[in-house]
Amino acid sequence: MRIDIITVLPELLVSPFSASIMKRAQDKGLVEIHVHDLREYGKGKYRHVDDYPYGGTSGMVIMCEPLDKMISKLKNENDYAEIIYLTPDGETLNQNMANELSLGGNLMMICGHYKGIDQRIRDMHVTKEVSIGDYVLSGGEFGAIILADAIIRLIPGVIGDETSALSDSFQDNLLAPPVYTRPSDYKGYKVPEVLLSGNFPKIEEWLHDQAVERTKERRPDLLEK
Ligand code: 6GU
């Protein structure tokens, strides 16, 4: 899979993709991440990419031309399953969306800034609009990082233990059960006996019960789905 990210702040997108699972996925050749600086297509000496909004409202809007040029160039070079605009008025990201996007091929992600991008770019090029939650961020970059992380860890081969991603919270609309590691007694806080029993059917049952309990208590809305 190839992910192209268009941004005016490419420096924000360096370190998140340079460590841990997202780095390993690239090193293994399972995903290619290409960050593009929109200012390459900016206008004039200062390579500006934004202008005042029509209608006299406040803030600045990212102009059509730099985005259209960059998106069109990328579309000529690659096929994309989705061209995603990260925006608070998009569809809220959830595990189901991440699962689908992890299977679907190359992705382009466009990060907005200021008051957003000219509506005509959304009409011309964007095929999916994604929000990461009901709050406003100063730009789409953190949304792109979060969306990319949620997708990349699901690509087969990225996570060593193949079953691991399937047992995450949300994969079956249940939160994950508690986990423990050594020692079995830490300052009198003990690991539940069943986990030390070696009785795997019983352990499975206990883990499932714990997941259901935790979900009932913390996120009953998930059980209604
Ligand atoms: Cl993806 N972008 C911005 N700017 N704000 C957001 C968001 C995205 N998701 C929630 N709030």
Automatic annotation (TrEMBL):
Entry-linked CDD domains: TrmD-like (cd18080)
EC category name: transferase
Keyword NAD: no
Location of the protein in the cell: Cytoplasm
Residue ranges annotated for the tRNA methyltransferase TRMD/TRM10-type domain, each copy included: 1-225
GO process terms (BP): tRNA N1-guanine methylation
Keyword Amino-acid biosynthesis: no
Pfam families given in the database record: tRNA_m1G_MT (PF01746)
HAMAP family given in the database record: TrmD
PANTHER family hit by this protein: TRNA (GUANINE-N(1)-)-METHYLTRANSFERASE
Subunit annotation: Homodimer.
Protein name stated in the entry: tRNA (guanine-N(1)-)-methyltransferase
Organism per entry: Faecalibacter rhinopitheci
Gene name of the encoded protein: trmD
